[in-house]
């Protein structure tokens, strides 16, 4: 099992390019099930989650061909309706095939999903939306089984107790594009990845309006065609490098990103004392001494993203004062704080609130990653810690970051990937 060895104390300088967004690519790949014509998805990142999704689509009967960073998919042959547990269990995004299979073929059998250990992530809103479209849905033996002769448009509200659901919005949107009539989704997720999925579906010939607003309207069409599409850049990867620059006191230009997707992150970096300059497709972050303390709470887009909370926790661990971070999306997303404490951080967690008393410095230690974004937080902490930090279980990291050690190394970090001794 691979691990990182990091020798901290070096500020990061230079420029780095961001890959396409994992959370946009995965539903777009699943959406290729909706058409029998070929789809070309460009600039696809070499991530473990992407490989798992392509393996799942191939298992269903989709033709999958790689050419460099372009993936060509064609679901024109015999397509299975059942997504096996052995693949779906590896990542939650495998659940995205439910909507396309049901929408195109009228039936789907998909294992309940896996993913990161960050608390309950129920699929009830997915099922509520599909039932509103007329599907009969049952959960048996760890599988969701859904059937419908043909789905029919309906009005529904998909907002849950913790806000809109990105996954449910995407799944229902994909199921509705071939349904009869109009579907109206109130309480829809507004994330850029949802907007990008809608843009891809539009290229296929779908009629979708309002993506990026709380109300999405989908008017069903009889069939969809093929498309050539390039997904948006990964705002979480961009935010991770931005935090790394501020944390290490360096200066990093983050290229191939959309600063408008990171407005909440840019605002908080500025409050913490970093200098941030935004251009059309890049942002440059300069660290200015110890960070200032912050109060921040995660929220659905356009609020502060839960996927960058852990990275900011690492930043605030060395802030000059006391910070308060409230996690409003996932109830178990402070597991990284226990590992940061091994490095000398002073963090007290009570329920959904973490009180972080900044310390002058962290010290290198052996730490264990619990999930994808926690992995990134521990790596960032290792960049400023005195001595050597060993981050274990980085397979979590490989699910969402492509060649992170190479990109950080090019910026001046001393980081090395090693296998088991």
Q: Care to describe what's here?
A:
With 421 residues, the chain is α+β, with helices and mostly antiparallel strands. The chain has two domains: 3-19 and 233-418, UDP-n-acetylglucosamine1-carboxyvinyl-transferase, Chain (Alpha-beta prism), CATH 3.65.10; 22-229, UDP-n-acetylglucosamine1-carboxyvinyl-transferase, Chain, CATH 3.65.10.10. Helix content is 31%, strand content 26%. Helix 10 (309-316) links the parallel strand 20 and strand 21. The longest helix has 14 residues, at 235-248. The chain is globular. Mean pLDDT is 94; it is low at 114-121.
Which CATH class of the largest domain?
A: Alpha Beta
| Uncertain stretches | 114-121
Inertia-based shape: globular
Question: Structural class, please?
Answer: alpha+beta
Q: What is the fold named in CATH at topology level of the largest domain? A: UDP-n-acetylglucosamine1-carboxyvinyl-transferase, Chain
The total count of strands amounts to: 26
| Largest sheet properties | 4 strands, mixed
Number of structural domains: 2
Radius of gyration: 21 Å
CATH superfamily of the largest domain: Enolpyruvate transferase domain
Query: Under the CATH scheme, which architecture of the largest domain would be assigned?
Result: Alpha-beta prism
Oligomer: single chain
CA(first)-CA(last) distance: 9 Å
Average pLDDT confidence is 94
Q: Strand fraction band?
A: 25-35%
What is the percent of helical residues? 25-40%
Work out the helix count.
14
Which sequence of strands runs across the widest sheet? 24-25-1-26
